[in-house]
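2024-03-11 09:14:02 DEBUG pipeline.ingest accepted 1 chain
2024-03-11 09:14:02 DEBUG pipeline.ingest length=286
2024-03-11 09:14:03 DEBUG pipeline.predict start
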Amino acid sequence: SMFVLCTLNSGSSVYCVQSILGQGAYGIVVKCVKIKDMTTVAVKMIKQRPCFLKLANIEVAALSRLKSLCVDKCNLVKWHRVFMDKGHVCLEFEHLDKSLYEFLKERDRCSLLLKEIRPIIQQLANALNHLKLAGIIHADLKLENVMLVSHEKEPYRVKVIDFGMACKDSEAKVGSYIQSRPYRAPEIILGLPFTVAIDMWSLGCLAAALYLGTQLYPGKTEYDMMRFIVETRGQPADHLLSHGRKTSRFFQRDNSSTPSLWKLKSPQQFYTETGIRPMKNKHFLN
């Protein structure tokens, strides 16, 4: 509340803070009016702590690489500038409407119709294609990071936001802790090399969430996630499991005569080894 009705100063512009749009451990996003031209913008204010500054630098690097693109055609949020104020790194963006997460929460039903889902997924696929061409992995695609531009004027027109976990495809590091858990790709869970393909996995999970009105893989742990993935998609191939840095957390070597070299640990075995109780079985539609 201390930020509402205060001002921010970039050196070249003064911003009057109108309201808080969102907040988290890293900082807050505020709705502002630029005094110079009275335009409404969103400003992401990131706390000056080493771990948060690293995220800010990552985001600015990714946004700088995308600056040359026509972001409206690419379905990506428009970034204007970065500045320092009140001990925060401030990123100025165009002001958008609301996230898909907020939009679904406001509706009587938490799912969308196929005719509503199709244009959203087409736009997000377009965004991911442009990110791929730019050599960037978003690494945090989820309902909260997809914004409706102006739902009353342009129904279901969306843009992707939040590049705080983004990285160059050529600099992807095995073992990176990225992607929100319900949208996390098997490569990340198992500790395998990864590419821009992990964003496509997240897109699939997001599409399912829009249709089902609930998360496809709502695991509280990565073991839950892997168990549900195996239940719906089958077990990852042996050559992938054998090279995963974290495979042994979820699978054990199978010395029986079964075709696979690996066997998923039972919920009881996982609980015995970790003290973490897995979720009850999730029943999927055939």
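2024-03-11 09:14:41 DEBUG pipeline.report The mean pLDDT is 93.
2024-03-11 09:14:41 DEBUG pipeline.predict end
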